[in-house]
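forwarding from the other thread:

> can someone predict this with 3-isopropylmalic acid?

sure thing
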Amino acid sequence: MSFTSSEGPKTLYDKVFEDHVVHKDESGSYLLYIDRHLLHEVTSPQAFEGLKNAGRQVRRTNCTLATVDHNIPTWSRKNFQSTETFIKEQDSLLQVQTLNQNVKDFNVPYFGMTDAKQGIVHVIGPEQGFTLPGTTVVCGDSHTSTHGAFGALAFGIGTSEVEHVLATQTIIQAKSKNMRILVNGKLTPGVTSKDLILHIIGVIGTAGGTGCVIEFAGQAIEDLSMEARMSMCNMAIEAGARAGMIKPDDITFEYIKGRPLAPKGAEWEKAVKYWRTLHTDDGAHFDYNIVVEAKDIIPTITWGTSPQDALPINASVPDPTNVTDPIKKSSMERALQYMGLKPNTPLKSIPIDKVFIGSCTNSRIEDLRAAAAVVKGQKKAQNVKLAMVVPGSGLVKQQAEKEGLDKIFEDAGFEWREAGCSMCLGMNPDILDPEERCASTSNRNFEGRQGARSRTHLMSPAMAAAAGIVGHFMDIREFQYKDNDVPKISIEQDAQDKALQDAVYQHEKEPLQQGESLDELEDDEQKDIPPEDHVTKEMPVKGAKAPVPSAMQPFLTLTGIAAPLDKANVDTDAIIPKQFLKTIKRTGLKAGLFYEWRFVKDANGKDQETDFVLNVEPYRKAEILVVTGDNFGCGSSREHAPWALKDFGIKSIIAPSFGDIFYNNSFKNGLLPIRLPQEVILEKLYPLAKEGTPLTIDLPNQKILDPQGNVLVDHFDVEDFRKHCLVNGLDDIGITLQKEEFIQKYEAMRKDRFSFLENGSKLYIAARGTKKSPYGNTSQEW
Ligand SMILES: CC(C)[C@H](C(=O)O)[C@@H](O)C(=O)O
Ligand code: SF4
């Protein structure tokens, strides 16, 4: 039974999407059921607060799994006593404590700091078998696209949507376009999926996938291990896509089988039968088709401040004098200045200061093995001040230690750390000093990403490790390995992986009795789990007030000063840098808006205003932003970006295109993003904004006018449903809760057809409070 029935051949995305439609309204907007919801401490506090204020509960705790990752220090937890003593930064501590409390209040399964299963949210989901093919997976985090490697429809959402999913287990979605990136042939030795995805982003650009779900297909993709597939899909968001997907196959099933939250026994068989139907049908329509020849790709790194600034390692730093497009030329000049690079310098000759091996892109066991293979028997270069290796989860760490990888790194002078996001974003103490250059396996090289004025170059784990050994970037294919016994840049899944992984899981459980298999034990455990449907439905919510209708200010007509911004690819890290994300409130973010662009430090370390447009009259009172370049709000899912803009007084942003998640988040906060062709902006709106002339945005009539009432733009597009909500100041959750009947109908169908999804994270709800800490402490968070 399907809730929608479109005829004809379908793409993988079409199939998964259609199998989750709860309701489609007249305006064409869909309500989709969410199977898996991951939570972390940065984007959830305001969502839980919203639930509490409205007296709402978590609809399905067993579809939910929480962990801490962004804020936590990566230094040793051997002497861990309490979160309070371990986390020194008070704002980081507050976010972690808030999550600790929220998971208790709402009975959400949680891997806290004393749990060996804790780790980066996109590492733990797959590792536990929580992420499954054909599921919808969301998280208040842009790199949720990672989970698409399993043939799941997985995408990042903002905090308002986190609240929506917690309350309703659904999300309001428009259908995306289908894009296929076909990678023909085989990758050559030394070339990994990280090189492949950097190459692809270099070709299609960071806005290339906007509005699309990308399916990665072809021989080179099918040959990839699950871990390598995850690195690919992880960075689909850097190509601007809503999600990345790869058809599930035997490699996928083999990876999932036996994981703690994966279906077992007959449910496993039923699941695999369904999962085998999840592939693009012959003749299915793709809106965009891109073909890449695997043999053409060589190890690739970034030189600039956007993931699209990717080049083969044997290239040189680009020269802006060769660029004619003025916007591209000036952004290249700025990037080179920021990165401290001279045009035409060979990439291989650039020295580095630090190495970071980690992040949700490349912190899994296979990544660590590839890096260890390079490092084995070698020593970190003298000029490299720090090389740190941060495993993606406690379980990855344990496995690496069993294999002796920690020793290999430490012998070479690399630091071996505890799991977390770490220097990928530096919300914890792991940051670069100003102007330090880092060889990093992460996914974003934005300005200030790894610390104020930091310089990030993205690359594969083996390339980052090699840079740490020789002290500058190098082509991994030319690297002289010391020890031939260790696997070199393995792209294949090692069968031993899972055996070891299973051993780790087993260690986590009660010791097995003689003759008892792990499978049997898990089946028994699952029998003990109380029959759940809406486990928390009757649960009193601590701190809950009487239900209040939450409504926004209606948006009708806006007349205001429009600030001109002549930039492309303005990412949400630039709109609101990471240090301002450590709040548990939605307000008070004005001071952080465009912080690195609005302020410089004086000799006394005090903030002084720059000549950035919002510091100049009359734009200090701007209510509209007129942006000339594409892809405004790309990158992170942080809803703090629209919160900060709103706090400043901005109510509408006009740009040629927007980052998908930012676009969504804006509407949820009463902020109107308007897409217009670049030539219209340049000809009609930008000149008026430059001279300080106010603009009028008439949302009901979808027009833009000048102060005399002359029509400048006689039509802009906005989806009916979004317009309806803005014009009437309506709250999405309230609207969705009125569709309870449809949600229940879907859930009844799901219980039958997708019974193998029912348990979800229930194992950890039942187990809560009974397990011992692997570190031997009695933990309050356990
Ligand atoms: C903090 C979170 C909102 C953010 C994201 O969405 O990506 C972070 O993980 C990042 O990588 O910038
Ligand atoms: S991109 Fe970095 S900060 Fe964001 S979830 Fe991944 S590891 Fe964490």
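Confidence is low (pLDDT under 50) at residues 488-497, 499-550, 770-782. thats all i got for now
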